[in-house]
Structure formats: structure tokens, C-alpha cells
Amino acid sequence: MNPLIEINHLSTHFHTGSGTVKAVDDVSFRIHPGETVCIVGESGCGKSITAMSIMGLVEGPHGKVVNGSIQFDGKDLLRISKEELRRIRGNDISIIFQEPMSSLNPVITIGKQIMEPLMIHQRLSKKQAYARALELIELVGIPRAEQIAESYPHQLSGGMLQRIMIAIAISCEPKLLIADEPTTALDVTIQAQVLETLRQSKEQSNMSIMLITHDLGVVAEMADYVIVMYAGKIVEEGEVTELFERPKHPYTQGLLRSKPIIGQRTEELFSIPGQVPNPLELTESCYFHDRCDSCMDICRTRQPELKQVSASQRAACWLYEEEAQHE
Amino acid sequence: MSNLSTREAGRVPDRRVSEAPPSLWRQAIQQLSKNKMAMAGFIFVIFMLVACFIGPLFSPYADGKVNILIKHQPPSAKHWLGTDHLGRDVLTRLLQAGRISLTVGLASMALSMTIGTVLGIISGYYRGIVDQLIMRIADLLFTIPGIPILFIMGFLMSEWKVPTDYRLYLVMVMLSLIGWPGVARLVRSQMLTLREREYMQAADVLGLSDRRKLFHHLLPNVFPLLIVIGTLGIGGAILAESALSFFGLGVMPPTPSWGNMIDAANNLIDFEKRPWLWIPPGLAIFATVIAINVFGDGLRDVLDPKKQTSR
Amino acid sequence: MRTYLLRRCLYMLLILLGASLLIFFLFSLTPGDYVDNNLSLSEERKAELREIYGLNKPVFERYVNWMGNLLQGDLGYSLAQQRPVAQLIQDYIWNSFLLAVVATFFTWFIAVIIGVITAYKQYSLFDTLVMIGIFAAMSIPSFFIGLFLIKVFAVDLKILPPGGMITTGSRAEGWDYIVEVMNHMVLPVAVMVLLGVGSLARYLRSNVLEVIKQDYVRTARAKGLKERTVLYRHALKNAMLPAITLVGFELPGLFSGSIIIEKIFNWPGIGQLYLQSFTVRDYPLLMGFTMLLAVLTVIGTLLSDILYHASDPRVKL
């Protein structure tokens, strides 16, 4: 099956006063139609920037996609014109952000905000768009659609707003939905509802989802395929069951160990020692080496490449490199 | 002895406060020196001050002697900006007028800052009835727009037959009279927000006296803001004085000011045929005020972190 | 909302009462009056006139009288012009209004465009140039730039009239009259716009800068909206919200005339009348109009408050 979207060697850099930050560093992956891919990692590891790079929304003047290609629908999203990209945004690829409270315009009614992409991309008339907006509001599980359409964002709760964001995102029946930490800002009980809404809308339209999260519970719930990022690079990827059962990279292992398991009592929850390295001070090395239990000499001086380590898993770690074993 | 120990005890948190600002100030100055526009403005203001206060000493025409024989001469090598209707050298007079205009601007701003700060602090710190009284007076002064109220005061000054020598000082007072309510409101609102901050509550816990809280904790925090609005206010004061003097309600001849020099333009022949009489003072006001404003804006960028996003 | 408004109105009245006291006593405690000014009158005639106009009564009684008349809409009688003050104001105020309305319109129009473009292209050459221009405009003495423009455009180039509202002795009617007035308005309006546009554009620019960083602007882009829609619908609407309060403050400016501009351009507006009244000590007119200014300002403040609350769906009283 042909992948829906294929990202190759994507690099996005930010130029700050004190140096260049490689927020996304040579990242490649693909998403197939109908697949849910989860990208996990600690904050600041480049998950969101990857998403923004795909959408062409990396904020200038400091940030810039410097290398790579994003193949989608026979086009390279990094090479097409702004106008062409605009026609894809919100139409073929749409996105949901982390903060539902601030992601909707406070002075425009909910209904109008849902209608906008419908009128632009699907060329619906105002009336048609309004009718469709009401349908969408009900589709994401909010009753009294008409009343909601007339209200302003501050009148709704965070969970409702996030569902409105989903309604906007799926309004044009996109092929790919990017969800950037869609549940992080919400209460736990609401989180489950929002995920359920996401899953339902996926089932109805067979779209692909790229779900960015740091919550492994969400991953287990939603993902088909998992990508683990650390300091701007992919350190491990694989099928969700495989990866959860036999994590290869010490970072993935650490992440999984730090997740609380219900029904299992431990003295203290595990946490990975140390912190994400300062992106300005990265040198040629495995970026995880100073937090790694199995750090070897080579880890400090050379960067491991992402290699096949099992039938469905790839990892970037010297532990699995022939070369390192021989040294 | 007990007196000494309380003083010592009070000094501990104190020193921390007084140690932090110098590095902050140095930082601000460093940042400011990188801002080319602001530095250019600053240098120009200094140049203007030096020229106006020291320049006339080197002029052969500084005595302002009237010589009708050489009246209305256009600019020449001898008189760079020509002569006026009494044969006085316009350049020399321009610099002497600058002395007055700059002094009025600086002094009236200093005065309104002082009044505004003191009243603002009292208002914001003690609140209650004192606050009510001060703020209602400020409201009252705000009901009449700036220019009309200045004109009214200038007119009253003439009606009370104030000698021209004193008018200069009264103009300063007038300008600060309309300047202080704005300053007081700003300081007051700053005080009100600062009061709620944690470190003020900490000061309460430490049992520091009111005066100590005011002068060692609150004032240093309002100070950067005051410097910024003070600087920007000087420009406004110079503009207001010039308008007032131009209409004959501010500083009056023979005391020269940039505003009353432009008065020459009220004479049709001078206006049409002798632009050297009124264009130079206009440009002097313009250049000085723009330099002050650019410098003030640069100051705002480094001293007021909230405003940094705007530029 | 209602109790809030009621409290505001009550406070407004109190402040106006204070303003009326201030205005009345400032003028009435001043030595000299219109009668003094008139040298041709004999002492007896002067006393007679004072008797007629109540100038010899105690100050407090005069205040009560003045105030009582004010409340009935009677602003007094101008001795210098021999006409009721209210009528005089009515005659002149519309000329001022015309000038102010046109100038305000252009000021806002230009400021919005400059504000949005400079914010969108922050740090570009255009932005820098405009910012320098804005600083310059904010630093020019209004009377000087007025004189300067008259000198250049009317005296030297002779392409625009030097002042007034119509050419002296003109009998133009209909369309010709309109064109003539427009011609005379060019320079004063240009000066008023120049003076006002700077600070407003700067204010809007910083608002827009603040707004385009917001998440909802990112959402608008992610929806695939055109950049122009993003800017002028999503960003500008939010950036203009705080500016709406300024509309209230602009209100008194529309009617109060501009003393300086009207004097320089010899525009027959209320500002010029006001300035003339100083020279002839026309106290009734000075007091009446100053009081009107105070009323307008207070209403303007109230209006901006109400507008602010009405415009932002987030703010509820």
C-alpha cells in the first residue's frame, strides 16, 4: 500500500541570538491511509515542530525548514507554492492544537469558525455551511448545536472547545488529521471523551491520524505505530504492541518504566535521571548518552543511526550496532 | 543597643534589594547603547544642551544689542541665520531661546514627575479617603482638554498682569499642573499591583515599617517606569510651551523662547519673505523633540519589559 | 449593568459640578471684564451695564444664577458678539465638526493600514521607515507644520488656498461651493491627520503584534484561510477591540474644534471663536464653551467605557 504521507530527512532549525537550534533533525517517517501514528517524547523534543513543519506553519523569521521533503498526494509540501499549500491546509490535512481555550478566536462565534473552512475549501454557501456546521457539532457529541453555534468560545468548557476544534478539523474530511497533544490541557475524565470523539470520527471517514503526545496511556489506546523522538531525532519506532512489549532503546525503556501501571504497586515511580540536553550545546554523540544506564564510550563521540533491530522495529542505539559490539 | 540590632536586622533583606538594581541598570545601559537610533537621539539632545547653554558664550552677538541699521538681513557669513527686526543675530537668539525652552521642558517635567509620584504613591499606598481625594482632583483636571486649559491659564496669567520675568516660572507650573494627574494615575496603579506581589507580603511578614517598604521596596520598582514617562514627557512639555508662547500666552518677549520666535510668522511680510526668522526655531523644536522621543522609546524598550514586544 | 451605569452617571454629574465650580471661579475671580475693555464707555454707563448683566452681584450668587441657566440649556449671553452663547456655538461648531470628522476618518483609515502592515512586516525596511516617520509626526509642533505647509503650498507653489473656508468674496454655489470648501480643507486636514496618525498607528501596531502571536491566529492559518482573511478578519478584529475605547475619547474632539489648527488656517470654527474670546474677555462664551468641553469629555469617557464592555464578548459587567 502506498503511504499517504512520506516525510524524508526533514530538518527544521531555529536561529536564536545564542545559536542555531536543530528542533527537528533529519527525521523520516511515513503514514499509511487509515493508520494512527503516535509521536511520543518529552516536551521540547521536536514533536510539535514536526507537525508545524508539515503544515507549513513554522513561525518565521527565526524558524525555518532547512532540508527534506514531505511527499503528499504526489506533491512535495515543502516545494509547492504558498497558495497550493493553503488549499491543502484545513482541507486535506488539518490540525488540532493543545490549548483549546486559546486556539479559537474569542470574538467570532463558534458557528462562524466552523463554517470558514467549509466555505473556503468546499465552496459551500453560507446557508449550506451553517447547516453542515450544525451537523458537525452534533457529530462530535455536543447537544443543542444551534445554541452552541451562536455562542462565543469563552462560554464553553475546554472539553467542548476541543471537540469544536475536532469538528473544524474534520469538517472538510481530511485525509490526515494531526492532533498535537489534544488532551494535555484537559481534565482526565474529559480526555477520554475527546479521544473517543477522535476515534469515532476516524472510523467514519478512514482518515489517518498523526497523534502527538507524551502520554503513553493515550498511545496504547490509539496508536497503530509509534515513533519515539528525543532531542529532535527519532530514536525508535515500531508497531505499538511490539514496541510496548520489547522496547529497544534505553530511552523508550525508561519512558515505559516511568508509566504507572494500575494494579501494580511500586515503592517509587521510576523516572529517567537528568534532563533533556540544551539544544544549543549538542555535539556529535548519542544525545541520550548522559542519561543512559548503558552508556558506552562510543555513545559520547558518535551518533548512532536508525537501523532495523527486529521485524517491525527500528532503533538508533549503539547497543544494537554490530560495529559497536566489535570495538 | 536594641536600636542598633533592629537596624542590622532590617539591613539583611535590604542589601539584597539594593544589590540587584545596579546590575540591572548596567544591563539596561548596555542594551541601550546597542540601539543606534536611541543613542543618536541621546547624543543629539546632549549636543543641543551644550549648544544652547555654552554656545552663546562664544557668539559676538550674545549681548542682544539692538542695531536697526542691520535689521532683516538674510543669512550671511556674518550672521549665519540672518538678523531680526531689531538687528539681533537670529542664531544667537535661537540658542538663547533654546536655553529657555529646554529649561521649561526639563523643569516642568521634573515638577510634574515629583508631584505626580508623591501623590500617586500616597494614593496607591494609603488608599481610602486620601486616595479618593487625590484621584477625584486628577479626574477633575482631566475633564478639560490640555490645550484649552493651558490657554485659559495663560490668559489668566495675562489678566493678573504677571511680570514677563515671572511668566517663565508660571509656565513651568502650568505645564506640571496638567502633567501630574497622568503620572499620579500611573504610579498609583503600579503601586496597587506591586502591593499585591509576594515580596510585599514578605515585607509585611518581616514587619518592615511603612517608610522602609515605600522607599526600599516599592519605589525602586516604579522607578524605571518613571524615567521612561519622564523622558517622553519632556518632549510633550517643550511642544506645549512652544504652542503657548507662539500664541503669546506663554513665555513673552524680551525673554526669547522657540515658540515666541516663530511668532514672527504672524507678520505677513516676515512669513512670506523672511523664512529665516521662523523656520529655524520650528526645526529646532522638531529636532529636539524627535531626539527626546526616540531616546525615550529606546529607554522604554530596555526598562519596561512589558513593552518590549511592541518593538 | 444598570447599577453600574447609574453609579457612573452619578459620578459624572459630581465631576461636572466640580468642573463648573472650577471654571466659574477661575474666570470670575479674574480682574477685569468685558465692560472694562471698552474704553469708550463712561464710568456711569459701565456701572449701568454691570447692573444689567449682574456683574456687580456677589460671586456666589452669580454662580448660582449661571448654573441655574446652564441647567435650563442657557449658556449665557455674549457681550462682545451681542448674541446668546448657545447660538454662537451652534453657528461655529459645525465648521469644526466638518474638519474633525474628515480628519478623524482619514486618521483611523491610514493608521489601521499602517498598523497592520508594519506589524505584519515587523523589522522590515518599510516598518523601520514608517516608524521613523511616525516619530517625526509625533514630534512636530502643530502650529509650525501648519505655517510651513502654508508657506510651501500656498505662498510658494500657490496650489492650495492659504486659509479660510471659502475664498474671500466667493459666491460659489452648489457643487462649486463643495469643491471650494474641500480645497480649503486639504491643508488643515493633512496637518490634523499627520499629528494624529502616529500614535494611533503605533498603538494599533503593537496590538496587532500582540494578536498575531496568539494561538487562534495559528488556527486560522491552519484552517487554510487566505492570509488577508487571517489578518483583517481574525487578527484585526481582536487588535481593534482595545482601540474601540479610543472612539469614545475621540468624541469630544469632533466638536471641540482645534484652537491651534483653526487659528493657523483661519478656519471659521469654534476653536478660533474661543481664541478670539480671550482677547475681548468674552467671559460668558469662554465659560460656556469650556463647560461644554468638560461635558463632552465626561461623556466621551463614559461612552468609551460602555463601548468597551459592549464590544468584547468576554467582558461582562
TrEMBL record, chain A:
Query: What molecular functions are annotated in GO for this chain?
Result: ATP binding; ATP hydrolysis activity
Q: Which InterPro entries match?
A: AAA+_ATPase, ABC_Ni/Peptide_Import, ABC_transporter-like_ATP-bd, ABC_transporter-like_CS, Oligopep_ABC_C, P-loop_NTPase
BP GO terms, sorted: peptide transport
Show the GO cellular component annotation of the record: plasma membrane
Q: Where is the ABC transporter domain?
A: 5-256
Task: Read off the PROSITE patterns from this record.
Answer: ABC_TRANSPORTER_1, ABC_TRANSPORTER_2
Please give, as recorded in its UniProt entry, the membrane topology of this protein. Peripheral membrane protein
Swiss-Prot/TrEMBL keywords: ATP-binding, Cell membrane, Membrane, Nucleotide-binding, Transport
Query: Where is this protein localized, as stated in its record?
Result: Cell membrane
User: Which SMART domains does UniProt cross-reference here?
Assistant: AAA (SM00382)
Q: Which Pfam families match?
A: ABC_tran (PF00005), oligo_HPY (PF08352)
NCBIfam families with a match to the protein in the record = oligo_HPY
**Family assignment from sequence similarity:** Belongs to the ABC transporter superfamily.
Return the protein name.
Answer: Dipeptide/oligopeptide/nickel ABC transporter ATP-binding protein
Species of provenance? Paenibacillus campinasensis
From TrEMBL, chain C:
| Family from the record | Belongs to the binding-protein-dependent transport system permease family.
Question: Sorted alphabetically, which PANTHER family does this protein's record hold?
Answer: INNER MEMBRANE ABC TRANSPORTER (PTHR30465), OLIGOPEPTIDE TRANSPORT SYSTEM PERMEASE PROTEIN APPB (PTHR30465:SF0)
Record-annotated ABC transmembrane type-1 domain positions? 93-304
Which InterPro entries has this protein been placed in? BPD_transp_1_N, MetI-like, MetI-like_sf
Please state what the protein is called: Diguanylate cyclase
- Whose protein is this, by species? Paenibacillus campinasensis
**Known Pfam families for this protein?**
BPD_transp_1 (PF00528), BPD_transp_1_N (PF19300)
Cellular localization per UniProt: Cell membrane
Q: Does the keyword Transmembrane apply?
A: yes
| GO CC entries | plasma membrane
Gene3D superfamilies, per this entry?
Answer: MetI-like
Q: What parts of the sequence cross the membrane?
A: 9-29, 92-117, 129-150, 185-204, 243-265, 285-308
Q: Name one GO biological process term.
A: transmembrane transport
The protein's matches in CDD domains, at most eight in alphabetical order, are given as: TM_PBP2 (cd06261)
Please give, as recorded in its UniProt entry, the membrane topology of this protein.
Multi-pass membrane protein
Q: Which UniProt keywords apply?
A: Cell membrane, Membrane, Transmembrane, Transmembrane helix, Transport
